[in-house]
């Protein structure tokens, strides 16, 4: 099969007229960029409490700084594949990488809320440039036999960055300083830019695409999802639609999205027609991405959240256990997943992944207050199977079922799913945990009535433990009451996290059902002959 034919079957864009002088450098540049995005997003989220202290920010200012640092990604990310096709990959990657390095150098040196907001917003906008062109460059540059391996690295970076984030934050805090949350990019981003220059040809601006540009569609989709993203990010903190601001952000964003679809149905050259996700396999696969994001919260949000919020541990105390039990097994799971996708059916790999997520989630429902970081070891190993097998398989399956004529449109929707889906799932889980903790606090409180025999006995036991300090009776009573309240709150939080694991279990089961609804992918370089010829235990 010719390269052009391979591209068509895989659902990528047609090969560009200019050949890449050093294809491995081009692929290394975009893969390095994807790792940079994964680590930066994760490190900023984990290190936000330390950043608030370093910058002297209030809790509200820190929360909004997180929004300003992430929402601009979704403003630009859907259009990056089109920008790369129109202006060339070199222009799209090189100059933003240098600007990103400069901003990363300056951020630890500046103070002032307004300055921080502006620089973080610009940094987030540049960060949104680095990932979207990755898949396009991989499929255009490498021979088909290397596509799955390169896509596996792309999928691997998400799980690896999520699980290694606490370790890196701990190392920076203890040995180097919080500034290296930013300064690491001062070193990495220029390397990415140099690799992009070495590996990509000098391409002329495609004035044909530029003349047919759907600027209105790009602006409406990017701005609409950025507003929704900001509303979702702040939703749990401001109690969702009880806040006029959240209602305005989400409502305004939804209105812009509706206007976007109207625009796409009316313009002569639509940039991202809804038809690209209208096919059965692609539509269901997009839903599978969302449910993968939801069930993977079991280790990206629930495990570190319990250890931090309930056990009271710092990132440096939980970093190594999570790295050893969740990151290192990925190094084994990823190559096995590549074998499954290359020689078996991608749907089989998805099934294995969701089953692993379901098993690990059920293990999490056995959670108790005494669990330590190493208590999650077996869960982390099983979760690594879910992360290694599921995401790679669904990416390959979407590409195998996509129309190459709609490559930039497909990329736009993939970026919306990547960013919007992750933020939505995280915010919904945070709200779920908050409400479940409140419910369990109320129910447990019913069994701790004021003046009850068991309550008075518990208060007396706690008071005797504090009596050695020589405090007055009133002080002992106050400390005992506070300690009892904390014990009830801890148990309520444990029960809430158990409910969270139970929720991810059901999400994994729904993911299994969606996989069973997929038909066999059409024949092509990303689909083994046996998988294209017949089903593997699922519907064709």
Automatic annotation (TrEMBL):
It comes from the Bacteria. It holds the Pfam family MFS_1. The chain crosses the membrane at residues 24-44, 64-85, 92-110, 116-139, 146-169, 181-201, 213-232, 244-262, 282-298, 318-341, 348-364, 376-400, 494-518. The keyword Transcription does not apply. Residues 1-13 have a biased composition (Low complexity). Residues 1-20 are annotated as: Disordered. SUPFAM superfamilies: MFS general substrate transporter. It is found in: Membrane. Residues 26-540 form the Major facilitator superfamily (MFS) profile domain. InterPro entries: MFS (IPR011701), MFS_dom (IPR020846), MFS_trans_sf (IPR036259). It is a multi-pass membrane protein. Keywords: Membrane, Transmembrane, Transmembrane helix, Transport. This is DHA2 family multidrug resistance protein.
